[in-house]
Amino acid sequence: MLTRIDHIGIACENLDTTVEFYRATYGFEVFHTEVNEEQGVREAMLKINDTSDGGASYLQLLEPTRADSAVGKWLAKNGEGVHHIAFGTADVDGDAAAVRDKGVRVLYDEPRTGSMGSRITFLHPKDCHGVLTELVTAAPHEGTSAPASTSPSTTEH
Ligand code: CMX
Ligand code: CO
Q1: 4: CB partners within 8 A, 6+ apart
Q2: Is residue 143 part of a domain?
Q3: Is 7 one of the annotated active-site residues of the chain?
Q4: Which residues, 6 or more positions from 105, have their beta carbon under 8 angstroms from its beta carbon?
Q5: Nearest by Cα to 135 from 102, 112, 103, 101
Q6: What global pTM score does this model have?
Q7: Cα of 80 to ligand 1 centre, how many Å?
Q8: How many domains does the chain have?
Q9: Candidate of 132, 136, 142, 154 to mutate for ligand 1, largest count of ligand atoms within 8 Å of Cβ
Q10: What is the pLDDT of residues 74-102, one digit of tens each?
């Protein structure tokens, strides 16, 4: 069951200046940063609020690490802006299977690693009224304390 908006993914040209915009304009602070080479992004998670399911909602600011990544291609075509939305669930495997059974294309056979050690998959935007949609199961304890590292090679701090 999808129980929260986990994050809104925002594509940007320069992560540092975009982080500074959200800090200076709204007072949102960086909760976590990492590089996810598989997804081709350098990202910052800005925590907005905790949610009643024990998780949290974030903005996910995304700078591409390479031009041929999903975010790199999207930026080249559209410029900066909202790239995807992500719904949180305790069971990404089950919810992805349920959505697939309804005829929506799920992009990965098995969930992959997302922010803060979460498990993620994506639904094709053409099957979701133009919205690239991510499903996320957070790593245990995420949102309740300092985030766990994903791995030393992919985590900045
Ligand atoms: N939102 C809405 N529509 C999108 C889109 C997006 N983010 N990205 C692509 N599209 C649309 C394009 O506009 C295009 O539509 P038209 O044919 O009408 O022009 C169509 O989808 C195909 O787009 P494309 O540029 O040819 O791109 P690809 O098909 O190569 O890739 C997608 C699209 C969704 C399969 C790819 O972006 C993907 O695999 N995304 C999932 C991974 C991802 O986004 N990772 C980054 C975030 C990581 C994270 O959140 O942790
Ligand atoms: Co995301």
Answers
A1: 51, 52, 53, 55, 56, 57, 87, 88
A2: no
A3: yes
A4: 123, 124, 126, 127
A5: 112
A6: 0.93
A7: 14
A8: 1
A9: 132
A10: 999 999 999 999 999 999 999 999 999 99
